[in-house]
Amino acid sequence: MNWVIDHIPELLSAAVDHLQLALLPVVVGLVLSLPLGWVANRWTVARAILVPVSGLLYTIPSLALFVMMPLLLGTKILDPINVQAALTIYTVALLVRSIADALAAVPDSVVQAASAMGYRTVGRFFAVELPLAIPVLVAGVRVAAVSNISLVAVGQIIGVGGLGYFLLHGAQSSPPNYQEIIAGIALIVLLALVVDGLLALAGRALTPWTRQQRGPVGRGRSVVSR
Amino acid sequence: MSVFDQVGDWLTNPDHWKTTLGIAGIPQRLGEHLQYTGLAVLIAAVIAIPLGAYIGHTGRGGTVVVGVVNSFRALPELGLLILLVLAMGLTLALEAVTIALVLLAVPVLLAGTYSGVRNVDRAAVDAARGMGMSEWEILLKVELPNALPLILGAVRSATLQVIATASIAAAVSLGGLGRFVIDGNALREYDQMAAGAVLIAGLAIVVELLLTGLQWLVVSPGLRKKTSRRTRARTAIPTSR
Amino acid sequence: MPTQGVRVIEFQSVTKRYADGTVAVDSLDLTIDAGRITVLVGPSGCGKTTSLRMINRMVEATSGTILVNGEDIRAQRPATLRRGIGYVIQNAGLFPHRTVIDNIATVPVLLGTKKAAARRRAEELLDTVGLPRELGKRYPAQLSGGQQQRVGVARALAADPPVLLMDEPFSAVDPVVRDDLQEELLRLQSELGKTIVFVTHDIDEAIKLGDKVAVLRVGGELAQYDTPATLLAKPVDDFVASFVGRDRGYRALGFLSAHGAEVVPLSTIPLGSPVDEARAALTGGWGVVVDENQAPLGWVSTSSLSTVEGELRSADLVAGGSLYVADSPKSGSLRTALDAALSSPSGVGIAVDSGGAVTGGVTAESVLKALDEARRSGEVPS
Amino acid sequence: MPTQGVRVIEFQSVTKRYADGTVAVDSLDLTIDAGRITVLVGPSGCGKTTSLRMINRMVEATSGTILVNGEDIRAQRPATLRRGIGYVIQNAGLFPHRTVIDNIATVPVLLGTKKAAARRRAEELLDTVGLPRELGKRYPAQLSGGQQQRVGVARALAADPPVLLMDEPFSAVDPVVRDDLQEELLRLQSELGKTIVFVTHDIDEAIKLGDKVAVLRVGGELAQYDTPATLLAKPVDDFVASFVGRDRGYRALGFLSAHGAEVVPLSTIPLGSPVDEARAALTGGWGVVVDENQAPLGWVSTSSLSTVEGELRSADLVAGGSLYVADSPKSGSLRTALDAALSSPSGVGIAVDSGGAVTGGVTAESVLKALDEARRSGEVPS
Amino acid sequence: GGSSDPLANQSTAAGGTSAAPAPAGTLVIGSANFPESTLLAEIYAGVLEAKGVKVTKKLGIGSREAYYPGLQDGSIDLIPEYTGTLLTHIDKTAKQTSADDVYTALQKALPEKLTVLDKSSAEDKDAVVVTKDTATKLNLKSIEDLVKSGSVTFGGPPEFQKRADGLPGLKETYNLEVKEYKSLDAGGPLTVDALKSGAVQAADLFTTDPAITANDFVVLDDPKNNFAAQNVVPLVTKSKADDTVKQALNAVSAKLTTEVLIELNAKLSAPDKPDAAKVAKDWLTSVGLL
Ligand SMILES: Nc1ncnc2c1ncn2[C@@H]1O[C@H](COP(=O)(O)OP(=O)(O)OP(=O)(O)O)[C@@H](O)[C@H]1O
Ligand SMILES: Nc1ncnc2c1ncn2[C@@H]1O[C@H](COP(=O)(O)OP(=O)(O)OP(=O)(O)O)[C@@H](O)[C@H]1O
Ligand SMILES: [Mg+2]
Ligand SMILES: [Mg+2]
After folding, report:
1. In which domain, by residue range, is D152 found?
2. Is residue A174 in a domain?
3. With left for phi above 0 and alpha for psi between -120 and 50, is residue D112 left, alpha or beta?
4. Does the model's ipTM exceed the 0.85 cut?
């Protein structure tokens, strides 16, 4: 533990960098994917294009995408923007589809009722459709945040990696500095779990109606299995 | 000369397609990549699919599966690889990489198989039991065929995740296509780096398309397009990259 | 009671052709009376929903004109028009993410009412639709189907719209609850006097609720538009006759008051009387056993008493038939009277007052006589 | 027709208590007749499904014994037992990944029949349940709800089991299709003579289908077990009476043949007759107008003819009431006869033969007389 | 590469650690991203601070490609360097191999703004290393013997594949053709492990690596001087190199020997992983420079 205790300031400042590298793309990605998801849900043609394309983008391995970003953006290879842009792409690829599906899953009767009550398209989206999509949206954001936090470390291979620094640096010492490596891994896992937990809590706070679903109704009608 | 041209030149340079001066070329690296991936996915499937099917069939332990999958998502692949390769040493490098990759693939496959079996229309399972199928027959003849779309989806996700992670194995001195990225970086040769990235992305996309095709061939036509938009929303979270 | 503008809805040769060429409604002419319940009924796909939704422009008519209170609905923007028309659909279409109160308050808030005021009004509406105020804080998923449907009605009433459109609102709830909801709607209508257009494919519901019923046939043509009584008595053609269904003669009796049917005195025997006294009290071999409030408990007959000794106990009774209420012109119908007679083991149906006490008996023959008289006096269309 | 072993099912004080303490079925004693349709009916949660599923051991009884053909069901392994018992559930529970044919062939293949033979049999079964053979190659998702339900029945019949258990099989389809399916089931039953146990919460369905009906109350107690006629005429208590519903006196007439009701001759007037001739032919002021096959078209009366000249045309007719078939003891019931009379503008119901030709008229009074006689002769339980 | 090469002109702000420019009057000390460079930078910093020079540290910047431009644009003022590789970095065609030749050539090649102070005798250069077993079995003393013994699997850092004194140099100088090249780390634990476990027969290690003695490895002679001299030398911006700085750093170079480097490296890799600053201070004190 000596090494860890001696290096708490470095670890903490790297953790802050790490979070910033991982979470900024989540925020940007979310903002970008809301209109895209809406468009994908609205027009079949848009869906037929957006969903497969985002699926394909999501399949590209992170290391490859990090390395290709300078090609696409004209940035320098060590620019943190590369990692952030790549992670934004993953976030958008993940969320566009979730949002489109979540919007499609809003019961037709609810949408109809909203229109019949005099909501216009935009008002209806924010008052009715978006809130109902929150559970799926939060699930998507959680996955994006957690996987981004883990992926930032890969960025260290091209020099931008937050806590990933300790993984490679510890491996470079001779003999390997296991304390350093394990401290890096542990902090990454910790960050991921904490962020995931906070997002889950936020999701719950935003969707009080999903709790206590099983009220006074619904007993007895349960499927009898086995 | 643009970077795209440089990448093109690098990829078409015959020296890079064979071992030159002891330095391995693209075919060998591709072979290594496929070897890591295939071995890991195979072992993970042998572990996870029967286990997931069992848990899905009995319904016991579902919460454990969800917990395991979620916490594994948080594990940084790079750290896992470094730790295992260092701890096990280079003579056991292949084993170390395989273990790391299996650890990544198992949760994905487990979750896919579990939810696939769980999501089978309960009425169909009830009917199967009611017509006198044994538990074994229910699993093999009803639950697994119906879970196939989700299981194959999980195989796809797991394979892609393994491909992605296998490419960072080069950071800990192993082979695979990631080698070009790492070496290119160390040598400050961006053409090599970018070419490596293109090869990795290309491999991922080709595998994705092949597995999608396989899925289309194997899954019963009765299950196609059956997933309502609602169930899609619930299972929309992919686990790849 | 809120004051309501008179709202007549007029369809003037309205046609709807969907993009795929389906003609859902074919030059429909229909005048819907203000302050009444008008029911659109017909087989699946006959264009009921389409007709209804053209009124609030959820569907735009292909040709023809729809007037509300003499004004073309196209004169207003759709969203504005809709805020003045209540709309209730199957499964209520409640917003799952809002509490019951907030669901109900939706339109007032949209129209600019302060949130607090809208909520107070919503609480009153809970009373109006017969729900306890405690439910206001729940979410829709925590309500039963019937309760949800009531909330749907309350929500549609919130802006106090003079017109209410209801599309098969009760078809997803079970029969007992549906009956409740129908009664509630009739009560509401008598209190509030809205102009209600109600869609159903259930002819029984149409007949029960409608002041007037429009029967549509597939292709969107109006087959008949009449009062329920006329519909049962004089279906214009085979399609309507078969749609109105079997038993239509019997069901038509439901529109005739039982007041005209002669009620004969019945011998009532208190429970616990000595069997000998009971035997002596029988009329035509039968007698009604009652409790201390004169409510009927069952029958005894010469044969049923032949093996009994001592005092009359519950176990000695023969189960009774259905009852009918006969103390005012509005209460029981010839239908309930006839069923009471038919279901009674003695052949005499028991008439009770609204308190449930036996007031006499009615025979099937006297019901038929009352029907004959009603026919002669023109009460039955023929 | 396949030969069937006699299969009586006996519940001997069977109780089911679930792990959470719910008593779903409470010491049930019930004997289910072989070759008949027995319906279990009752409100939601009363233990119908539990009772049914104890028969094929999908649910194991907590105490008591269930015998099939005198043999304790626990003597066989569950899977073996179930292969000899057909089971049909709501939404059919078809296997989505198999074609219709392969769904139907499932049990025979399980039992070792060759695939080709099982498929041939499955095709025959498509005929049996009234589906075109072309549907065999489709997947369940490509069928309508009603078609799926028929496939479910075919699948249950595939191994030719003497016993068929059906749990609310028709409750998810719309009323028109449900009617079809019910008719189909009655036809099937009359052809195949299976022992069918049928669960529903719809009392009308129970009365329509059941040879005997068991009414359960919540808590899993048997409230009444009788024929539908007895159930309507003599509900044992208020619970059953209210469950059986209103109109039970009238509906009970459905179980009495109209054969006993007197048919009086009617004057029939061919369409196109001169109006003068028609006027002369009226009886009691009314006459039935018929086509060349003697099928009734409508009524004319003194008053309706008063403004007509020349020959009788369709437009001159008064719409008729419902008809009833009266040429054999099995055809029409007193219910249809009474409705014919009640719905007729003349007060006389038209009796037709099975070809549709007018055979005479029936009055409500003669129906009541027939009911009276039936009561006296004990045809009606009292 | 062309003008669009993303690797061109990397700023010194590698790793996103760029900070506000150092206050005027302070000397900014940088280091590369391996332990020995950090240690040397700490030693320079220690001795300069003792002489009252205000210093700012920017350690672990990265490779030479990253930090060298930083010296030119003034982001850093001083960095520990190695004569041989620095020379070939500036002049790709340089052929000098002996310590003095390299040092002289280097002084000529340096741009106007920069200068090197006295070189120390401490050398840390690449060397071809084999295990004792391999040396005995194949009877290896020098790289030439390796060629005679037939083809081997060779391990080293990725850049060794292409560096002038790497595989191309070995081929040119000795006609050594390896059977397979394995990219490992730069003299790190993986290379050591690869040698020990036999995953490679020969590897490129640094002569100051304590693992060589610890594992009883044999350093093969380099009779044809494939690897140029690599004396440790302070590279500094001329304008910042006043007399105080020069004297202080020259005093350090006078005390620094290869043995000292080996010893200090060994201390750094002790199980408790002490900080470079502490190791530097202790040494400076022990040789009387503090
Ligand atoms: N958006 C649409 N596009 C094309 N055809 C439509 C559309 N909506 C309805 N239809 C068709 O128009 C006809 C009338 O539909 P409508 O929904 O009005 O019938 P309905 O009487 O309400 O039927 P149901 O009782 O089944 O609700 C049907 O044939 C239907 O298939
Ligand atoms: N697996 C179970 N565990 C605990 N309680 C159960 C279980 N299955 C059923 N029950 C309870 O047993 C009672 C009877 O259930 P059952 O399903 O037999 O009723 P049912 O008459 O079929 O009702 P429905 O008409 O709603 O289908 C109910 O109170 C139900 O909640
Ligand atoms: Mg409709
Ligand atoms: Mg049930």
Report:
1. 9-254
2. yes
3. left
4. no
